[in-house]
Amino acid sequence: MNVSRSGYRVFCANSTSACTELAKSITERLGVELGKSVVFQEADAETRVDVRESVRGQDIFIIQTIPRDVNTAIMELLVMAYALKTSCAKNIIGVIPYFPYSKQCKMRKRGSIVCKLLASMLAKAGLTHIITMDLHQKEIQGFFNFPVDNLRASPFLLQYIQEEIPDYRNAIIVAKSPSAAKRAQSYAERLRLGLAVIHGEANHSESDMADGRQSPPLSRTTPGHTGLELPFLYVIFAVLYLSVMMAKEKPPITVVGDVGGRIAIIIDDIIDDVEDFVAAAEILKERGAYKIYIMATHGLLSAEAPRLIEESQIDEVVVTNTVPHEVQKLQCPKIKTVDVSMILAEAIRRIHNGESMAYLFRNITVDD
């Protein structure tokens, strides 16, 4: 029972059954009850939070998993954090296994670094610490002005490979792109397996998206010339400009490494839109791989992902329960789940007791 002498409370920032499942698993491991609160939407879609027990002077842990409606989930977290702050909680620690907007952590032309904005909003709402897992870029921790514990799911995924994949010694770890090679290499080294890298892209990256800065200069009329009669030097400049700014042609998809007669295990941190994974699986099948697994920490599995996975050459998709995906599992039996509530519960216990977190990173490599 959550009695006051325990010194901490664990709340869930979402009242839906799909999102409270992870919170209940964590509290069961901690031996406490989930804090009493109600989170709901008003008729006009405003978020309202009602905390129904005293939190004065306590360490408060808010568990928030991110469902499909990411913006509503963020507002729930912000409103609950502020409600606990104004209720005189001692420390407010956000347990956010999948940190939203983590892909928007770099400046893209005239865009913005939304991840930095979210970090500032969380601090303003009252959070004093965050526990998360496998940030899309580790440098995101620098956006916060309070401590961030970025846990890793790799020990759980490595254990799954060793225990659930028959003949895993005949497997090869595959990086879906050169940018994912470091993460894949860390898995390959710990499993003592070979490494393959898929090179080339089937579609254009964000850096090749059309932008106003790639547009040719507007034609200007000069005295003595019509709009169609451009000066010779101006024509040369326009041709050079277009040739330089024209997007580079992507190389064809190739596989660096021998996957023939082996089990291919593709490693990544997020699996959302699965078109790239499906294309990678087809290439690996053509190169002779006889089984294809995909291992990822965060299974967002948006849009038509379950159907595409079911119809593809992929044999199994293994993700953790950082994001609720029970509906997707019903649509596609190839999707399997690894429970990471144990490490999240241990992180909560150690932070509350003031113990070192180094034990939770004992089997983690630099590139993981």
Provide the fold topology.
Blueprint: E1 8-12, H1 17-30, E2 37-41, E3 47-51, E4 59-63, H2 70-86, E5 91-96, H3 114-125, E6 129-133, E7 148-151, H4 154-164, E8 171-175, H5 181-191, E9 194-199, H6 232-245, E10 254-256, E11 263-271, H7 275-286, E12 291-299, H8 305-310, E13 316-320, H9 326-331, E14 335-338, H10 341-353
Helix pairs in contact: 1-10, 2-3
Strand percentage, roughly? 15-25%
DSSP strand count: 14
- What is the alpha-carbon Rg in Å? 25 Å
Sequence of strands across the biggest β-sheet: 10-9-8-11-12-13-14
Number of helices: 10
Q: What do the pLDDT scores average to?
A: 86
Shape: globular
Structural class: alpha/beta
- Estimated helix fraction: 25-40%
Low-confidence segments, given as residue ranges, are 1-5, 203-215, 218-222, 224-229
Q: How far is the N terminus from the C terminus? A: 37 Å
Largest sheet features: 7 strands, mixed
Order of helices and strands: EHEEEHEHEEHEHEHEEHEHEHEH
